[in-house]
Amino acid sequence: MTPKAESYQTTEEHVPYLRIETPRDRVALPYSTLLGLTLSADEMTLRLNFASTEVTVKGKRLHEVFCSIAKGHGEALFARCVSEEMTDAPGNGAPFISEIRLKEPTGTQSG
Question: Is 72 left (phi over 0), alpha (psi -120 to 50) or beta?
Fold first, then answer.
């Protein structure tokens, strides 16, 4: 397990679950239910669509996090409350997660 700027952890091995920790919740979502993930062009919003949960991750420089999860090597995501000055410090190119939102996916209605 490798800690990455205290916002996420990776491993060299494929892991069965992605752990997500926010100030309010701790969940472990199985990779087998990951339907897709998207990263915004500015690398500040990452969306993960699991069968039971939609996860929205906000932060900075999230490309490395996106790649890790896409390979099945992302082990954990953590929302961290850190001042903007620390995330923009010179030479600090590490990904930073400021917010994680969890919600049930929007259901489709049959008419």
Answer: left
